[in-house]
Amino acid sequence: MILLSVSSSSSSPIAAVFSVAFLLIYFSEPTLAAPCPINVFDSVVPRVEIWLQTFAPGSGTPIHRHSCEEVFVVLKGNGTLYLAETHGSFPGKPIEFPVFANGTIHIPINDAHQVKNTGQEDLQVLVIISRPPIKVFTYDDWFMPHTAARLKFPYYWDEQCLQESQKDEL
């Protein structure tokens, strides 16, 4: 795992996102993009999706792993990243890492992880994933065997937006 921090208070979170997106594109394998409307660079960068996630205090993701790299750029708030290197028959006990505003975190392919807002205010992150559509495997706990993890494929962060008709504003 690579932990990076955006240290300059004048640095733009958007500049960090584009830098990270460029690295993901440069080092990722070519694949076809998902037909998800959240893919903001549909024709320019078809191998990256960027999601904005906001976690209320006490909330977080399920324990999961997926078939892509993931980068978090923390915009505001703080919390905890739980990360287990997924090399055995189950994730195992995770290592805890603090996450905080202006921090950037890299999650390797198939490493089980979970993000929780352990602060008192909203935790807001930009999530950049490579190689959409992704396969997501969820776990009930850190010692659940990989063979018992539940698969969701394709995974769309906002499935409701796929069901709503897209209207032209003109």
UniProtKB/TrEMBL annotation:
Signal sequence interval, chain numbering: 1-33
InterPro entries: Auxin-bd, RmlC-like_jellyroll, RmlC_Cupin_sf
CDD domains documented for this protein: cupin_ABP1
Keyword Endoplasmic reticulum: yes
Location in the cell: Endoplasmic reticulum lumen
Main location, first listed in the record: endoplasmic reticulum
Keywords, alphabetical: Auxin signaling pathway, Endoplasmic reticulum, Glycoprotein, Metal-binding, Receptor, Signal, Zinc
Pfam families in the cross-refs: Auxin_BP (PF02041)
UniProt protein name: Uncharacterized protein
Organism: Brassica napus (Rape)
